[in-house]
Write a structure and sequence with these properties.
Length: about 575
């Protein structure tokens, strides 16, 4: 079979395999059961029991409360009952009218520990508190359905491996002779890395591998982009991938201890501020944005690492639902980050931070007024930025009119639109495009490169895979153990969604061109590292039985408590 015939055949097979991989992951993440974990009960006066399904349970008259108490003298949001990862419960009064008491002791501002058998009084309503025993916890855990039972994650990874092998086969006929060996070895190395990760997950008796499979699918597209545009950077990309995967597992291990994770809120804030300060002082302007730092021949984009620190610190601040000062702290922290990015001229990343802030603050407050106030402030700040940074205003002026100046302001986007259209549904084949030769094509316009080389179907599936992660986080949020995990996962997937939308719609002139990368796909070392680190937050939100290595088994934790006792 000739090279042309092989490329033609694989062009039609690749979309089928890509759709198969993402569909299997999506079905597994959304169709498998999410039986709630039960950490205790509140006993009502009529002897009925309300389960405590989270580590932070809001109690009040509001229908949105975790525990609804229908009594006229109970406030809408009256109290919050919080469990730490050592199994110790504390109750806090959220500025209620009737007060909160444990026995005869009034709950102070700092909260009060609650033990099994204690009586909790909210205004005139008294509830009994019953903590779960080790036996009850094991019984509930045994009744839950383990992840990976309906869709075998190993079989899904096998389909992904075939997808990767076909792309590698295309490069066997399209790669330059001097880069043929390194290209093939790079794809073999990618196969080895993902299967080692899968075996590692299975070795610790975990079955959930959908999130990682989607990340490796997107990383495959990114490796193909590098092999096509800058094959000399393949080894560096692989080293960064290994580092990113290692950071993913390291962060997952770190997040297993919730108290330890939240204790580093201030170091995370200080590190984020330090990165931004160094960026402002020492970095160089690239395409109008001062966001690249060069150290010893290596380039670093500190704002990518700040994304991870921003979410880490923000989730640690906002998980304490009852403390308004935490929201004020996060607003101030967000404002500093966005202003620093605006001063750098990196307005695309500034937009990502701001929209992520809106999502997190709404998750925390549920207040449309808060979000509207933030948007109003951002509108005024945006006006000042456009006044101070004329080239940003020029980008907005070009928006929707790129064909009016195809050799000037609209040069990149007109080429991206032409290349994307020329690829059709199935593309020309990996390495067979011409858009890769345009400046920043493998970063800012990577969606168009995928359309040209691998086809519109694969490009759309890449976008759908990020949406699949968002649907997964949305579904798992109501079952999360802690609001820290829920907020961090929600913020991470929101950031990835916004980043993807700006990359796709910006390169296709549907939105103003911002120069933002496509998660996991665009060539860029720091971006790849940050995406894998954000994936650890998403993984932490998965509370299906034996799904996430980030989540400790409930019965093991309870046994340790019993042994210490």
């Amino acid at each position: 079979m000739t090279g042309t015939a092989v490329i033609t055949l694989t062009r039609y097979l690749l979309p089928i395999l890509a759709a198969w991989v993402v569909a299997r992951c999506l079905r597994s993440m959304l169709s498998e059961k999410y039986e709630p974990e039960v950490w205790g009960h509140l006993i009502f006066p009529d002897a009925s029991a309300a389960p405590l399904p989270h580590w932070e349970c809001v109690i009040g008259r509001a229908k949105t409360s975790d525990i609804v108490v229908n009594a006229p003298d109970v406030s809408r949001i009256h109290a919050v009952l919080i469990r730490n990862d050592k199994g110790i419960w504390r109750i806090f009064d959220i500025n209620s009218r009737g007060g909160v008491y444990v026995g005869k002791e009034k709950v102070p501002r700092r909260g009060l520990e609650v033990k099994n058998g204690d009586k909790i009084r909210l205004a005139s309503t008294t509830l009994g508190f019953a903590d779960v025993t080790a036996g009850e916890l094991r019984s509930v855990d045994k009744s839950r359905t383990a992840a990976g039972t309906s869709i075998n994650p190993g079989a899904t990874l096998l389909v992904l491996s075939l997808f990767q092998a076909l792309i590698m086969l295309q490069y066997c006929f399209t790669a330059k002779d001097e880069y043929l060996i390194v290209t093939c070895l790079s794809f073999f190395a990618l196969l080895a890395i993902e299967w080692l990760c899968y075996l590692l997950i299975r070795s610790i008796r975990r079955n959930g591998f959908e999130v990682e499979t989607i990340a490796f699918f997107l990383t495959t597209l990114g490796l193909s982009i590098v092999a096509s545009s800058t094959p000399e950077a393949l080894v560096k990309t692989l080293l960064l991938l290994i580092m990113g995967v290692a950071l993913f597992f390291a962060m997952g291990w770190w997040l297993r201890d919730l108290r330890r994770a939240k204790a580093l809120r201030w170091p995370a804030v200080i590190a984020a501020m330090g990165f931004l300060f160094v960026n402002l002082i020492l970095s160089e302007y690239v395409f109008g944005a001062k966001n690249w730092l060069y150290i010893g021949g290596f380039s670093l984009q500190p704002s990518e690492l700040v994304k991870v620190l921003y979410i880490y610190a923000g989730a640690a601040s906002l998980e304490r639902l009852f403390a308004r000062r935490n929201l004020l702290f996060f607003i101030a922290f967000s404002a500093i980050c966005v202003m620093a990015l605006a001063l750098m001229g990196d307005y695309g990343t500034a937009v990502i931070f701001f929209v992520t802030f809106l999502i997190i603050s709404f998750m925390r407050s549920g207040s449309i007024a808060t979000v509207f106030l933030a948007i109003s402030g951002a509108a005024m700040a945006g006006f000042l930025v456009f006044t101070m940074k004329p080239y940003i205003a020029q980008r907005f002026a070009t928006w929707g009119h790129v064909w009016a100046d195809p050799y000037g302001a609209g040069f990149q986007q007109t080429r991206a639109l032409s290349a994307a259209a020329s690829g059709g549904l199935f593309g020309h084949g990996a390495g067979e495009g011409w858009l890769k030769n345009i400046v920043a094509a493998n970063t800012d316009m990577v969606f168009a490169v995928i359309c040209e080389e691998l086809g519109l179907i694969v490009a759309i599936i890449a976008a759908l895979s990020i949406i699949a992660l968002a649907l997964f986080v949305f579904r798992s949020a109501s079952h999360g153990r802690s609001t820290y995990y829920v907020i961090a996962a929600g913020a991470s997937v929101a950031l990835l969604m916004i980043q993807m939308a700006l990359n796709i719609f910006g390169s296709l002139d549907i939105l103003p061109f911002t120069g933002v990368t496509f998660p996991f796909v665009s060539k860029g070392g720091t971006s790849l590292l940050s995406c894998w680190m954000l994936l650890a937050f998403i993984k932490a939100a998965d509370t299906r039985k034996d799904a996430s290595f980030v989540v400790k088994r409930a019965e093991i934790k309870q046994r340790k408590r019993g042994a210490k006792a």
